[in-house]
Amino acid sequence: MDRATFACSTAFFHDYSSSSQGAFCLPGGHVDFIEKVESFTYSDFFRDYLIPNHPCIFSAKFTEDWGSRRNWVTWDGKPNFDHLLQKFGEAVVPVANCDVKEYNSNPKEQLPFKEYVNYWKEYIKNGYRSSRGCLYLKDWHLSRAFPEQDVYTTPVYFSSDWLNEYWDAVAVDDYRFVYMGPKGSWTPFHADVFRSYSWSANICGRKKWLLYPAGQEEYLKDRHGNLPFDVTAPSLQDRSIYPRYNQSQPPLEIVQEAGEIVFIPSGWHHQVYNLEDTISINHNWVNGCNVAIMWCFLQDELAAVQREINEWKDPMDDWHLQCQLIMKSCTGIDYKEFYNFLKVIAENRISVLENGLDDEASAKNTPKAAISTLGMLHAVFDLKRTVKVLTSLSANEDFKKLDLTSLSPPPEALLHHLKAAIDTALL
Description:
The chain is globular. The strands form 2 sheets. A 9-stranded mixed sheet has the order 1-2-11-8-13-6-5-3-4. It has a 4-stranded antiparallel sheet with strand order 7-12-9-10, with no helix packed on it. It has 2 domains: about 25-215 and about 250-285, Cupin (Jelly Rolls); about 290-425, no CATH class. The protein has helices at about 5-10, 15-20, 40-50, 65-70, 80-90, 115-125, 140-145, 160-170, 290-310, 320-330, 335-355, 360, 365-375, 375-395, 395-400, 410-425; strands at about 30-35, 55-60, 90-95, 110, 135-140, 175-180, 185-190, 195-205, 205-210, 250-255, 260-265, 270-275, 280-285. By secondary structure, the chain is of the alpha+beta class. About 40% of the residues lie in helices and about 15% in strands. Residues about 1-25 have low confidence and may be disordered. It catalyses: L-lysyl-[protein] + 2-oxoglutarate + O2 = 4-hydroxy-L-lysyl-[protein] + succinate + CO2.
């Protein structure tokens, strides 16, 4: 995040400001490796990685009981194409061409999964070359399309997941993905949606990650303020194009082995390479620890849209609404939906605090069950963080210019309910 965004987020998180600032630099470029499942608790992860926004790597022991680790991989650690075709052969999947640059990413097309697997086999057979280029299956919503499949279980450390909790509730989208690609496939330089956290587990294969702590991306921008497509490109050494590149820190480099999970902090830009034929499970997620960063990101995005169409401000009666529509088309959310996002999260926690958890809900994989697993104090923590962001949203001038009559309950009433629930829970 830039300095303004960082200042914005630490204004909310003043109680953890000293540890948040540590996210800009890790001594000696060290990334912690978490070895043992039984000796690492959610509280450890919350204290040492979520709040300070530091990366870490979980050992393969954390994924060894996953169905995909058992069934999607051959005895020698390669993708089990036969099994995958049997289970998912008729699916249609999103595929990116890693050899083509389109704006600041790779162009995508939809392909039958069986066609992609046939391409992948031929690509390997031909020495990892093809006239079609290097194709990478990315952002496949496999869990949503095949909910009955035994693929993986989300580790408890990542269970406070507001993004997927909300989008599951409105049944519109989710941020759970499968990636599959041959050796040499890669993802260009980027930060994740809404400046969310992400976790990525290798089912098979190996990845190399280049990570830049939040704020470092400012030094990587060209003279026009654009981020690079590829941070390893020789052109970054040209000061006439990238005038501040020599002020940047070298990236943190991680080589992720099969079975391991990498935790990527909120707002950290990164570039990723598949060193072997690789399959991975990826989630993007937001929670009480980084929701203020998401809110600051949305304010920055709206400000950028407003600058772009500022010349139309006077002749356009609904200029503010048009800015919201453009922002939503670019980011996937506008201010009113962000309000509804906060409302759904808050009401789920209030329900548990006020009514407890019945046996039927606790037996299911539901948001309320996850809240119960993490404990009532965590629910209070979530509500406190929601109150801070909701208070800022309600006072925001761009938000107040919108037609808020459709919001139910009104922001003031929701804030009152949240504060009352917190006070009651702490009695």
